[in-house]
Every structure is written in structure tokens, then in C-alpha cells.
Amino acid sequence: MAQKVQFHVGLILDLESLVGKMSNTSISMALEDFYESHPDYTTRVVLHGRDSHMDVIAAASAD
Asked: What is the C-alpha to C-alpha distance for residues 42 and 23, in angstroms, rounded to an integer?
């Protein structure tokens, strides 16, 4: 079996809003569905989510 390579992706959403919550769920489900349908893919997207608290600039620059 081939080794899986992780591709890390930052995701900034306002998780206090309905749109942010729906987006987070939709993106996660889409990734799960994709890899379930394509088990032979060795590259895996790994999401690193951050809540913007309605300030994307501060969220993007935070450590």
C-alpha cells in the first residue's frame, strides 16, 4: 500500500454564523465523500480550521 501524503490547508470561517457552520460541515463532508469514493488517492487534504470571530485579518495573522 502506498504511503499517504498529507496536504495541510488553513480554513478560516466565522463559526458563530450559520453560513460559517454550514460551510465547515459541507467542506468536511465533501472531503469524506471524495476519499470514500477514491480510496486509491494517496494525497490527503488535512484541514486546519480557525474561527474568525468576524475578523478574518486577525484570525489569519494569529499564531
From this structure: 25
